[in-house]
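Hey, can you fold this one?
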Amino acid sequence: MQSFSSMADRNTIEAQMPWEARKNPVTLYGVLAKTTKKFGARDAVSFQITSGPTDKAETVTWQQLHDRSVQTANLFRSLGIGEKDVVAYLMPNCNETLYALMGGAIAGIVNPINPLLEAEQIASILRETGATVLVTLKAFPKTEVAQVAAAAVALAPNVKTVLEVDLNRYLSPPKSWIVPLVRPKNPVEHSATVMDFNKAIAKQNKTLDFADSKEDRVAAYFHTGGTTGMPKVAQHKYSGIIYNGWLGNELLFDETAVLICPLPLFHVFAVHVIFMAVLTAGAHVVFPTPSGYRGDGVFDNFWKLVERWKVTFVITVPTAIAALMQRPIDADVSSLKLAFSGSAPLPVELYNRFEKATGVTLIEGYGLTEATCLVSINPPAGDKKIGSVGVPFPYTDVKILDSVGDQTDARNCDVDDIGEICIANPGVWAGNTYTEAAKNEGLYHEYLGTSYLRTGDLGRLDADGFLWITGRAKDLIIRGGHNIDPAEIEEALAGHEAVAFVGAIGQPDAFAGELPCAYVELVDGAVVTNDELLAYAKEHVQERAAQPKYIEILDELPKTAVGKVFKPELRKRAITRVYNEALVKAELAAEVINVIDSKKRGLVAQIMATESSVNKNAVDAALGEFTRPCEWVDS
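Sure. Predicted structure:
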């Protein structure tokens, strides 16, 4: 591990040699083989299907993970998966998910899919990627993954083989006896061949039956967002995946680390940032329950799980931190060294509360699927700037760019000036980010001969090189790290006969970061209530996470000169409402009197005391639960 405490350290690491000169393995199998040779007998992965601190768990060593990943790759090749063919998995977390991940990327292109999506969305991804093999669950109590998978395969005739994983093998009697008696049925039939995953891989050799890839290539497809219709599918090459793994091993931990990762293995955070770093380092990662943080009892047992596994490194997100801070630290967590938060902005108050309660350093990072993932991080050592997302990683070039008319080259913004965050690094495949060529148009800025990926996020770089996110150029709502396209909400509500215009935005939420809400302008003479529109949205917005939690009817929505709904005004309105509700609930004598658009900080709520005796620290703490900043103003 190298020292990483400042922008200077970052520059020193980068100056040691070019990225290409670091002589990392070219392929994921190369990384796996290298780690297995060094650390084959060490624990690699532990999974427990239930969350109790003494419950049954299955731990595999690096040698066992290697062998089962290779067996899986051989199985996929036997089913016709070549280097350009796609194997998808629709799986919760378990050890087989990792075998499918690694085997798929070794044999061909692996395509993880969110099992919480609707069957139609899953089918559209399967069709877009052309997947011919799908790994999923055998029907199991208290989950509908198998049923949704069957419905999706029925809509994706390109899928020829379905490999089923039976979670029952992780249970002990008497529970394991009961499952066969209550196992649900798949109500939808399809024409694909169905096989037992574990029985099929057990028949395969533990050495590769085929030659590993000789050069860099696309090894993974990850879909973005989770909105109705076809999410965009990002292409990830070996080089970008290996870069993410190298960063974790080089800067954050070594083979002695034990990580707990209750995040889903269909997301780049868990796969590229965490598992690939664990793979590169030869460390040990624990996955508690198939649903991670969503699993029964995980929050209640979390600190005891840390004690059980002697965890040194916690992987989390703001929503999980908020839930953990509502529970006592009822175990010995002295093994903990670091916690890493990502996927969504972290409120300052939540950051402070976590560090005070645990005594553990919390580092916040920034990344995106389109860049394979990692972009920047608040350095684990040295001074941090809370509220920023830290400094760019070595070999990641961040520019704050603005378009200049119709010119090809963009303008580089000055220090502290806001523009679009644009990046170039080994995880960015310029011109080929998405599988669909048309979706790559307009996705890059050219600057001094280099193509920079446009993230859609607005931000600034300060004088010390720290990156600050101030807003989003792209109009997404981010609910607990889950991307929601407001167009889905707007299109659904616009179908109501009384609705003329709709503006959907993310309103601040202390737990999820943002929740979808909508502002509506009615057709002249129409009569409908907010509750009626909420009920209509619940019925017509297909994705549950996108269903608005608040709808307000306005006499007229704010609009631009060309008649487009002006969402910055709606965001200001939502901030004012939500923050004032929080102040009333906390019985604090203060109110938001204005929301301004600061060049350096984005939208900032201005607070005024309504009584001279108000406890300003209490107000700051109450509003610090939200990600948007506040400032006091005189009366």
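The chain has 17 helices and 30 strands. Let me know if you want another pass with a different chain boundary.
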